[in-house]
Design a protein that fits this description.
The complex is a heterodimer of chains A (264) and B (325). Chain A has helices at residues 2-21, 23-32, 35-46, 57-74, 78-88, 91-96, 101-111, 113-130, 139-166, 174-187, 199-207, 215-222, 227-262. Chain A has 264 residues and is mostly helical. Chain B is α/β, with parallel strands linked by helices and 325 residues long. The longest helix of chain B is centred in the middle third of the chain and has 18 residues, at 187-204.
Chain lengths: 264, 325
């Protein structure tokens, strides 16, 4: 672990250099992550005649801008890379290096964040400034946002790692990945704010891990939770992170055993 | 440096005939078949040796290399490399080995090779001084200087292979597993790679185990060869002895001052090639002396040389024998 931590800054630097080299791809990626804007246009139209639930037109604007921001900061696509490397057999080369492949992936992922946000984040922040009366004013909530974002990223990354590792069993984990994307788009609040769901669905959605991928940091930005509740949610989020970490370890180990038994 | 005792690596492979019906059937019932990729092989390699690993496609060469480098777990048997059990993939083990696969690359595709070098320096935790010294040395030996700053994707196959070798050796491994390192390279680049591997082996006393389809690689690099076929080790010894054993005959190459009839040559041995004033005649070891004497006295000789049969042929015969047995 000591070696890995020492190597991490260089991993980040190289990851950043790679992200810069892939700039065209990132531009496309950026424009394809515009679902919240589509949803915003939709809900803004609906809310013209009057608020929907507790959301006015401006409220929706703030919600989806915050959702886009959180998504840009915490998104992870490591499944694609893992699936490709497993198929092409280049995972072997990663396994030969004295660093845990998942740690290397995580560095590549983190290092890409600045490049991803270089255009979008300043724009989003400017737009958010325009609806600032919709944002939370409690400095404690803004302080909790930092660990909450980190938690969201970790949770997303770990789930992606688990799905990617499943590629060691199945030819390709991408259909599983798509299923996950579909479910989490709904239950994480990416498409619709969770508090607009019918009560029964909402009760379930609020305790499932999906909420902590996106909705929770957005709720903090909008100041839609009180301090104590926010703290409790942060603890719950990191509980899910710990569980995901454990699951990742288990899946990775047994995946590797299988890989070692059957070959790449 | 490398100890292998009764190594077995068996895979269970799912078999399925082609067609939709078979595909549907296989959803419910999956017939499996055991493939004995490596079937009870034992050998040991001393530190500093250069050993060639020969065999037809699918013989078990790559599987063995993958077991030795810790990527695959043996089904049975004991393997020890540089004092470690490879499958544990301990850091101390990974620091001492490298595996170069001619068909896979670790260089980052869109960045210059120097970026991958820096990455590996960090991952292998190579001290700055040592890194600089090794890099300078590798750069000189492989003439990398003009390549280091170009994005990998813009390099030719040969240039890329040179950089692959450099990045794989940056941490100065003591054991080199090279799986088809010269595949697809032109003749002069093959020679460069070979020369480099020998140089590295001599300079650092590293142990080299190499597989290749090009017999030239093996002949030029490896005093010792191991031949594997259908998962079994069928020969382990010097290349020279292998050739002598499989093909005890020699080839007499004669160049003449004027064309001769084929039957004039047939009195010497089996004629393999005959073109006007040039011929290749196959002669058994015992009959060689007599044949040379006869050629000298009966043919209008310009030049006469005696060679071993080409290695390609030796291997073909060897594997044909293996199949017949």
């Amino acid at each position: 672990m000591r070696h890995a931590l020492k190597a991490f800054p260089q991993l980040l630097r190289t990851g950043f250099a790679e992200a810069v080299a892939y700039r065209a791809e990132f531009l496309i990626w950026m424009f394809s992550t515009n679902m919240p804007l589509v949803m915003l246009a939709l809900w803004a139209a609906v809310a013209r005649s009057g608020p929907v639930g507790s959301y006015t037109q401006k409220g929706f604007a703030a919600y989806y801008l915050a959702a886009l921001l959180v998504r840009l900061l915490t998104g992870s696509w490591v499944v694609w890379e893992m699936t490709m490397e497993i198929r092409q057999g280049t995972l072997a080369l990663r396994l030969l290096r004295p660093i845990h492949p998942l740690l290397a992936y995580s560095a590549e992922n983190l290092a890409a964040v600045p490049m991803r946000g270089i255009v979008a984040i300043p724009l989003i922040v400017i737009f958010l400034w325009n609806v600032r009366d919709q944002l939370g004013g409690d400095p404690i909530l803004w302080t909790i946002l930092a660990p909450a974002l980190l938690g969201s990223w970790l949770l997303t990354f770990l789930v992606m790692s688990i799905i990617g590792t499943l590629g060691l069993w199945f030819e390709s984990a991408s259909s599983l990945f798509e299923a996950w994307l579909g479910i989490s788009a709904i239950l994480s609040g990416y498409l619709i704010p969770l508090d607009l769901f019918p009560a029964a669905v909402r009760e379930v959605a609020l305790v499932l891990p999906f909420r902590f991928l996106l909705s929770f940091p957005v709720e903090l930005v909008l100041g839609r939770v009180d301090r104590w509740h926010a703290l409790a949610l942060l603890v719950a989020q990191w509980g899910y992170v710990a569980a995901a970490l454990l699951a990742t370890r288990l899946v990775w180990r047994s995946g590797l055993r299988r890989y070692a038994a059957y070959g790449g | 440096m490398i100890e292998v005792e009764h190594l077995r690596k068996w895979y269970r492979v799912h078999r399925r005939p082609p067609g939709l019906a078979a595909a549907l059937r296989s959803l419910f019932h999956r017939p499996y078949e055991t493939v004995k990729a490596v079937d009870d092989i034992s050998f040991s390699i001393a530190a500093g040796e250069r050993v060639g690993f020969l065999g037809p496609n699918g013989a078990g060469k790559t599987t063995t290399l993958k077991v030795l480098s810790g990527l695959l777990h043996p089904t049975e048997g004991r393997v020890l490399v540089a004092g470690s059990t490879p499958q544990d993939r301990a850091r101390s083990f990974l620091q001492q080995i490298t595996l170069v696969m001619g068909q896979k690359q670790q260089l980052l595709w869109d960045l210059p090779p120097s970026e991958t070098f820096l990455l590996n320096r960090a991952i292998y935790d190579i001290p700055k001084k040592e890194y600089e010294a090794t890099l300078a040395e590798l750069t000189a030996l492989l003439e990398l200087a003009p390549l280091l700053g170009k994005p990998t994707r813009q390099l030719s196959l040969g240039e890329r292979m040179k950089c692959e070798l450099a990045v794989a050796l940056l941490h100065r491994p003591k054991v080199l597993f090279l799986d088809e390192p010269t595949i697809g390279l032109d003749v002069s680049m093959q020679a460069t790679v070979r020369g480099f591997v020998r140089e590295y082996n001599q300079r650092f006393g590293a142990t080299v185990l190499l597989t290749s389809h090009y017999m030239e690689d093996v002949a030029a690099l490896c005093p010792r060869v191991m031949v594997i076929d259908k998962g079994k080790l069928i020969y382990d010894g010097s290349l020279h002895e292998l050739v002598r054993r499989v093909r005890p005959d020699k080839r007499m190459i004669v160049r003449l001052t004027r064309p001769v009839e084929r039957r004039d040559l047939e009195s010497l041995g089996a004629v393999v090639e005959h073109r006007d004033a040039e011929a290749v005649v196959q002669v058994t070891q015992d009959a060689l002396q007599g044949a040379v004497a006869r050629a000298l006295s009966t043919l209008p000789l310009h030049d006469l040389t005696v060679e071993d049969p080409p290695l390609e042929e030796v291997m073909r015969d060897l594997f044909a024998q293996g199949r017949a047995a």
